[in-house]
Design a protein that fits this description.
By secondary structure, the chain is of the alpha+beta class. The protein contains four helices and six strands; from the N terminus they run H-H-E-E-E-H-E-E-E-H. The chain is rod-shaped, with a radius of gyration of 37 Å. The chain starts with a helix and ends in a 6-residue tail after the last helix.
Length: 159
């Protein structure tokens, strides 16, 4: 960007020198030629200035995008500090649990580990002894199923 500005300044100085020289010319053809050269130098300087402005605008836009991304990351990290990876003792299944003292008027709940890895905050929904993720359709078993009483199923005998 500085190179373009320096080139623009140099072009403007050259144009000024040419204009000073043209002032002293007595020949009309030389004057027309000098004016044409000045116009060419001014157009070159304008093109350099416009290119510099475009680069600056693109860089400003990129900075804005990166600042937005940084805010999103910081917001996500701030939200996730409220959760801790929880292992259900009976099944060894994992989910993120809202930590005690971090409820902020929310009921205790769990987040899907698959969704959290994708930076999505999906609250798992209870479904029997499972927690169900409505986004990725995962079922997380929270407790083991009770043993089956086969005598009830087969009328009281194994035969």
């Amino acid at each position: 960007m500085y190179a373009e500005i320096s080139a623009a300044i140099a072009s403007a100085k050259t144009a000024l020198d040419i204009a000073k020289t043209a002032h002293n010319l007595s020949d009309f053809n030389n004057l027309v030629s000098a004016i044409s050269e000045v116009n060419t130098k001014l157009m070159d300087a304008t093109a350099v200035a416009l290119a510099s402005q475009e680069k600056q605008s693109a860089l400003t836009n990129r900075i804005t995008e990166l600042e937005d991304q940084l805010r999103q990351v910081e917001n996500w990290e701030s939200q996730m500090k409220r959760y801790k990876l929880h292992e259900f003792p009976a099944t060894k299944a994992l989910a993120y649990a809202l930590q005690l003292g971090m409820e902020d008027n929310e009921p205790v709940h769990y987040l899907c580990t698959t969704c959290v890895s994708k930076r999505e905050k999906t609250i798992l929904q209870p479904h029997g002894r499972f927690l169900y993720c409505p986004i990725c359709k995962n079922n997380i078993e929270t407790s083991l199923s009770p043993p089956i009483n086969r005598s009830v199923i087969h009328g009281g005998s194994w035969r």
